Amino acid sequence: MTTENNELAEAVAAWLHYKELTGLRGLLNEASMTLPIAEYLAAKHGKEVKGEVNHPLFKTESRGRPKQIDFVRMRAGENAWLSAYECKFSTLNQALIVQDLCRLVCLSQSRETIGTPDRFFLYSGEMKDGSLLKSSQFNTGEGERRSFFGGLLSEDRDDPNISFRIDSLHPNQRRRFIEFAKANKAKLPSVVESHLSGWAVSGKIACAIWRVTQSRGSILLSSEQMCDE
Q: pLDDT of 209-221, one tens digit each?
């Protein structure tokens, strides 16, 4: 069954593959994803789609760029956000990806002003050994290496759902969530869920889309509460 997120993933993967074939191999970046995302969403939802919208939870500092959501589908009025999208291209920087996930789940704390939008994380890049993310690994300290995003984001279309407790993650994973909470003076939900809701491959380029939510009954944790006792 073709879904909107599968179509969006197809649009992104096909566009990036086409740009590689026309001579931009090695020059693509996150900005390269914005055109196919913007054009696809605009074709589906018209003027409801906005780019680089200020995050409603984090106040803009007097200096520096405000924290933003890459794309938002919204209607006029209050409680009007319908969906929010964060995207990354071909980076396995753990901190940057976790920051996007955190910005998305934190939107639940602004439901009185924006409503309850669906939240999606898009990642595109060249697959290695059939995976987008597994090559990002860390040393467990117990003589083995583990995929950093294992247990956070599934690439298995037959088993697309993952639920994880932030305070139960391996310390090397949990540290990134703690860093976000400290830097932004924020609290994060204790249990996060991700669902692989879009997937496409064109040439060597793949695009995956995950729906990100906080689990029902989840409580908010400060950075101190996420640390080891």
A: 999 999 998 999 9
Which residues have C-beta within 8 Å of that of residue 183, sequence separation ≥ 6?
A: none
C-alpha 120/C-alpha 72 separation (Å) is 10
Predicted local confidence at residue 229, as pLDDT: 44
Residues 6+ apart with CB under 8 A from 47: none
Please list the helix, strand and coil fractions of the chain in percent, rounded to the nearest 5, in that order. 35, 30, 35
Tokens 């993933």 found at: 9
Residue position matching structure tokens 């037959």: 158
8-state DSSP, 134: T
Q: Is the Cβ–Cβ distance between 200 and 5 less than 8 Å?
A: no
Instruction: Find, among 89, 94, 100, 88, the residue nearest to 136 by Cα.
Output: 94
How far apart CA 154 and CA 146 sit, in angstroms, is 14
